[in-house]
């Protein structure tokens, strides 16, 4: 028993020396642990791909794919989705063109100049924008005339009209 244990110890020492030597050779050759991992993964993936289960599964999935893609339902769905994509693309392109044109029309004026210009404030685009903002504000805040919640304005709030310094 002691002789066998001694041989095991010797074999462990030899194995450690060989592993150290192997590491030195890999280092000298420029091989990193990552390279070894890549090589192991590649070999493992190759082993999976040539396995009987993988080959049979791939064949079966190929058959199912062929059946599905040849079905009328698949072809109609593909055609419908393709048309929907084309129409959506065209609509988005039109929206982008309109926005670009509107911004182009407005960009001939500087921002500071356009805010104070009556022509800008009286334009259909500006009026439409102003109306929408007002509508949204009324929905969120509510109008003062329609207020039925019993809340009152603070004292002195109605004495002077608020000063409008906003650019819009």
From TrEMBL:
Family statement: Belongs to the TPD52 family.
Domain of life: Eukaryota
Organism expressing this protein natively: Nothocercus nigrocapillus
Any matching Pfam family: TPD52
PANTHER family hit by this protein: TUMOR PROTEIN D52 (PTHR19307), TUMOR PROTEIN D54 (PTHR19307:SF13)
Keywords on record: Coiled coil
Protein name: TPD54 protein
Chain segments carrying region Disordered: 137-168
Gene behind the chain: Tpd52l2
Keyword Coiled coil: yes
């Amino acid at each position: 028993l002691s002789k066998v244990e001694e041989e095991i110890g010797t074999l462990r020492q030899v194995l450690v020396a060989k592993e150290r030597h192997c590491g030195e050779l890999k280092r000298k050759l420029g091989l990193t642990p990552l390279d070894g991992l890549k090589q192991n993964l590649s070999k493992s993936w190759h082993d999976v791909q040539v396995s009987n289960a993988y080959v049979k599964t791939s064949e079966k999935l190929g058959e199912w794919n062929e059946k599905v893609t040849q079905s009328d339902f698949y072809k109609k769905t593909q055609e419908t989705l393709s048309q929907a994509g084309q129409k959506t693309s065209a609509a988005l392109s039109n929206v982008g063109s309109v926005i670009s044109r509107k911004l182009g029309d407005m960009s001939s004026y500087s921002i500071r100049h356009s805010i104070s210009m009556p022509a800008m404030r009286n334009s259909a685009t500006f009026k439409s924008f102003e109306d929408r903002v007002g509508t949204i504000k009324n929905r969120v805040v509510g109008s003062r005339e329609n207020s039925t919640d019993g809340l009152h304005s603070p004292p002195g709030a109605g004495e002077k009209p608020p000063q409008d310094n906003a650019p819009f």
